[in-house]
Amino acid sequence: MANFIKKGYQALVKEWLLTGAFAGCFLTSLLVKRLPRYTRQDAEILFILWVYLALIKGLEKGEFFKALASRLSAGRMIGLKLVLGIFGLAMFITNDAAVLIGVPLAMKLNISRKRLLVIMVALAANAGSSLTPFGNPQNLFIYWFYQLQFLDFLKAIFSLSLATGFFLFLMAVLLWKYVPVTDSLTVSFNRSNFYFLFAFLLFILVTLKILPFWVGLFILFIISILDFESLKVDYTLLLTFFFFFGFTDNLKDILHFHFKDPFHVFLGSLLASQFISNVPAALLFCDFTHYWKALLWGVNVGGFGSLFASLANLIAYRLYIRYAPNESELSFFILFHILSYLFLLLGILLYFLVC
Prior knowledge:
The protein has 17 helices and no strands.
């Protein structure tokens, strides 16, 4: 019995976002004395996220990303290629998935300043993912929640991704001597990846509202035929979204206010991201404002800063400690926050300049 309680407690701590979302939804439901109201839009967002997670899982199982990494690790200018490669990759496969690929590869490279490279991989994943609606969960949510057009979304956030990407490029050029890898990866390209890539590109057209929404059901059917195991995705993330939708719906009945100043939306969502991460911050603020651009900037700039600001940051930290157990965690922690808060300040400055 004690062992069961211990494992239950460890599971709750490990999935702290899900635990917090459920607690918030449950307690606010008791307060307003009703169950949350879920809309068709909520269901569509959950479905889109589910399909993307399944497609990425299928590509991972087919070792598509490992094959991509093996190409990236060949030749010279490795540090620069890795940072820019993760920056570009995160636009399409989410910042979390990009970090899961980039950090293990960085630790295998025959290159100096690996700790710094790992940190820059995390920064590059956050910077690159900010550009597209499908680059990270908060962007996908904002894009679908506010029923945005792709070009409007792109124009709104382009300057942030461009500026942060440029600074990462300069850092990578200045910090590393580019040497060839002595033990580069050799991974063949699995044929199943072609089918998953086709389905992935097709679903991007669904997300951009070029193809009808029902095509997503067809894609899900294709995935189940290609590899049913790919449907075993991170359902804790989907449940976290589900309970946050309920939590924010209940909050609307409790708080009865609306942000009237876009700067307040930007600053509030940025600060909230530092403590609860940027995905739940986006879910929390959306029901209290129509200033989607300020919210988009707030949660994407808010992904920089603290280790908790983005799940990609935590993943990078955990992977670094796993691959380098003898390295100082404190050194990583300090260096990460110095660089990450510099990018946070850059993002704040850009917001005042372009918004």
